[in-house]
Write a structure and sequence with these properties.
The chain is mainly alpha-helical. The chain has two domains: 269 residues, no CATH class; 28 residues, no CATH class. The protein contains 16 helices and two strands. It has a two-stranded parallel ribbon. Helix 3 packs across helix 11 and helix 10 crosses helix 11. The longest helix is centred in the N-terminal third of the chain and has 26 residues. It starts with 9 loop residues before the first helix and ends in a 5-residue tail after the last helix. It comes from Roseivivax marinus. Keywords: Membrane, Transmembrane, Transmembrane helix.
């Protein structure tokens, strides 16, 4: 049963769940517009400031692509199912080395078993609250690329495993099979296209490394961790959907850098998971109007979330 049926009528849920191809086009175009615009800004005014700004904005929009892939996983990005699958895979998932079908299976399990021992995301939320020193170490590993390199290595080894079950060092044939497989092979193809686009914008062959690989290994990992903490870190371990998930109020700078595309309305998403992201603020207001505000787990901002997540005594 959808948890939201305890709070909304079927007509309300039906209205909130309406998909729109126009919204889908706008969101994907907005995300890629910010990415390519950041690269173009550096190309026009190359300096340390525009470089740092591009890395941060692009890393945040890489999270935006992950969020839009998440929308596609719920069949909520486009009204057209075919367009939903194609855009979710090729325009959102593949460029950040993610697989839409595999993510969908994983993520729907999370929805079914939220904050229970069968929740595959429990490992992300269970360590919190932790100490300030522990959180600081995690964020340092993220921003220095240690987390990103570890995750990419795990993806490559998983590709080897899926391509061919071997013992010992993979052979050249295993390598070819792994990188021509559906996950890594298509991700490489998508990134070859990006390599050409970034080179064309900047006239530099190193632009893909600087403006895609670097953000993906650093800033993307930071905001991904902050988002994961905000959603289920340091909340109640209970079946109550108003207590085991958090909505975080975000100002404009947080929406730009940490919480793109209404991802901060996570409690509302868990109530009715197939509601398109742009309708989540409306769902939130309806919950308040119905008098549920006092029971909902919310935070005034992401700084407050990190404060709660690092509140355990050393």
């Amino acid at each position: 049963m959808t948890p939201g049926k305890a709070y909304f009528t079927s007509d309300e849920i039906r209205t909130l769940s309406a998909r729109s191809d126009l919204w889908g086009v706008w969101l994907v175009a907005h995300c890629w517009g910010l990415i390519l615009g950041s690269v173009a800004l550096f190309a026009i005014w190359p300096n340390v400031l525009t470089f740092a700004l591009a890395v941060i904005v692009i890393g945040s929009r890489q999270l935006g692509l992950a969020i839009l892939m998440h929308e596609a996983a719920h069949n909520a990005l486009f009204k057209s199912r075919r367009l939903n699958e194609w855009a979710g895979e090729w325009l959102c998932g593949r460029p950040i080395i993610a697989d839409l079908p595999e993510y969908r299976r994983y993520h729907l399990t999370h929805h079914r078993y939220t904050q229970t021992e069968r929740d595959p995301d429990l490992r992300l939320s269970k360590p919190f609250p932790t100490t300030r020193a522990s959180l600081r170490r995690k964020l340092i590993r993220d921003i220095t690329g240690q987390t990103g390199l570890k995750q990419r290595a795990q993806q490559i080894m998983f590709a080897f495993k899926m391509a061919h079950e071997v013992e010992g060092t993979p052979s050249s044939q295993d390598l070819a099979q792994a990188f021509s497989g559906p996950v890594i092979g298509r991700a490489i193809l998508a990134n070859i296209v990006l390599f050409g686009v970034f080179w064309a914008i900047t006239s530099h062959a190193w632009a893909w490394l600087a403006f895609w690989a670097l953000p993906l290994l650093t800033w993307f990992q930071v905001v991904l961790r902050v988002r994961n903490i905000a959603e289920h870190g340091a909340v109640e371990t209970s079946p109550d959907p108003l207590r085991n998930t958090r909505t975080t109020h975000a100002n404009w700078i947080e929406r730009l850098l940490v919480a793109p595309y209404w991802v901060n309305y996570h409690l509302e998403h868990h109530l009715v998971m197939h509601v398109p992201a742009h309708n989540l603020p409306k769902l939130h207001r309806m919950m308040l109007d119905k008098g549920h505000g006092d029971r909902m787990t919310t935070a005034p901002g992401y700084i407050d979330v990190l404060r709660q997540a690092s509140s355990r005594a050393a």
